[in-house]
Design goal:
Length: 321
């Protein structure tokens, strides 16, 4: 059980022992690197470019996928590259950020200035700040690189970038903002669910490009992507609002009003993604039925499929690009 040291936590008069300890954490400096966050973001964007151009685009993907990759049109090729870059970035962020984030969340690390993995230089806050900038760079890279994005994806990415940047800027004057550290942690809660819930959809689209004719396999892939996206949204809503509600007495009026509004926007974007995977799942089921009818009638697939399967072209591009 975490001891509520007055040096690390506040103890309100109406303290409830069931209250998450992290909601009592005192406002503090996130990292001494906060003034250099712009430089960290710039370096992160450069790394994204180098990894995308030299590793994925011109080395790994052509060699690993062959014609599957080279025969894609420019729009889908950009999307295919981005799904690999984003999936790799999310794996790195999850592995690197798990220890510092959950240490803070569980209360075992009440100070962000504590050392990271025994380092005499790097702190937990340093790692969380750098990953915050990598998260921003990931979405900025996608907004700049993708040839086509749906309006919902654009709104989600822009909102994520702005919220993550505001969390860092707000923490710069933490002495004047008693909820600055809590807001930074809340943004991390949003971010970690976003990273986890969006990882499998990246894999799903990659598998679509690899096995476009395997409708039984893709039906299972898209169904699982739909379930992961939807259930992730539900769990995220419960956890975020639980944290936000217990810390109610700590929030300024701005965050009491803004947090539920922003969460509704993010939830809508994630449910839209779940809806798209639902449509892709039903599309694969229709194609399977079409294939069965073709086998029974002994007619070529092309003669029966158009009458049974007809998705709007623009919707399909938005879902799979």
């Amino acid at each position: 059980m975490t001891t509520l040291s007055p040096h690390n936590y506040i103890r309100p008069e109406n303290y409830n022992h069931r209250r998450p300890v992290v909601t009592l954490m005192k406002s503090q400096e996130i990292s001494k690197l906060v003034p250099y966050s712009g430089l960290i973001l710039t370096v992160s964007l450069v790394v994204f470019f180098l990894v995308r151009y030299y590793f994925f685009e011109n080395f790994l993907l052509p060699r690993f996928y062959g014609d599957i990759y080279t025969k894609l049109d420019d729009n889908r090729k950009r999307g295919f590259i981005n799904h690999h870059v984003a999936a790799a970035a999310k794996i790195v962020m999850l592995i690197t950020g798990a220890y510092p984030f959950f240490s803070v969340l569980a209360g075992s690390a009440p100070r962000l200035s504590q050392s990271f993995a025994g380092s005499k230089i790097v702190t937990l806050g340093d790692v969380l700040l750098v990953l915050n900038q990598v998260f921003i760079a990931m979405y900025v890279f996608e907004l700049m690189f993708r040839a086509k994005l749906s309006p919902v994806a654009v709104a989600h990415h822009m909102g994520s970038v702005i919220i993550a940047a505001v969390a860092v800027a707000y923490s710069y004057n933490w002495k004047h903002h008693p909820d600055a550290t809590l807001e930074f942690i809340l943004c991390y809660l949003w971010g970690i669910f976003d990273v986890i819930a969006e990882f499998w959809p990246h894999v799903a689209i990659i598998l679509l490009r690899m096995r476009p004719k395997d409708h039984e396999y893709l039906r299972k892939v898209f169904f699982s992507a739909m379930i992961v996206t939807f259930s992730g949204t539900v769990v995220e809503t419960i956890v975020v609002l639980y944290f936000w509600g217990w810390a109610w007495d700590r929030w300024s009026l701005v965050f009491k009003i803004l947090t539920p509004i922003l969460h509704c926007i993010f939830t809508a974007a994630q449910l839209w993604g779940a809806r798209n995977f639902y449509l892709m799942w039903t599309d694969q089921k229709k194609k399977l039925r079409s294939k069965d009818i073709t086998a029974e009638l002994g007619q070529p697939l092309e003669s029966t499929e158009p009458q049974l399967v007809r998705l709007d072209v623009e919707q399909e591009k938005q879902r799979t690009s």
